[in-house]
Amino acid sequence: MTGLQAEWDHMRGLTVDLLANCSPDDLQFSLHPQSGPLWKQFRHMGRVHAEYLAGLETGKMAFGTGAGRYTGGVTARELAGYLADLNAWHCRVMAQPDPPQLINWFGERVSRDLHMVRLIAHEALHHGQLMLFWRALGHSFPTSWESWGVA
């Protein structure tokens, strides 16, 4: 799991780096009248992370459970705090003794490693969406985003 954990840390680090570069106006920006503002992307990424963590704890994956409910505001500081709290939970979950070895994914039983791969893939999906927002805003990417070839 060490390599997967390192990859997760890298992916979430990219998310946090981009968030740290967001102005209040950036966070309110929406690509389209029927899409939500940028800040909701970060909130959603946190909520999904929480659902994956709950799956690691319980051995059962579920979406829309309310795990990781966000009650903060729309500032970069508050969103970063939320992601930091989730990271602390993540560290506790990964350190738990005798965790479930298989996660029930809607009837499919997958290893903890595959569960983590799916979490990383979900974060990457949202990185693609964040790229669209960031390009539309006309900003340069943080240097950490060189790993995506966009910095």
TrEMBL record:
Residue ranges annotated for the DinB-like domain, each copy included: 8-130
Taxonomy, superkingdom: Bacteria
Residues making up the signal peptide according to the UniProt record: none
Positions in coiled-coil regions: none
Protein name (record): DinB family protein
Phylogenetic classification of the source organism: Bacteria, Pseudomonadati, Pseudomonadota, Alphaproteobacteria, Rhodobacterales
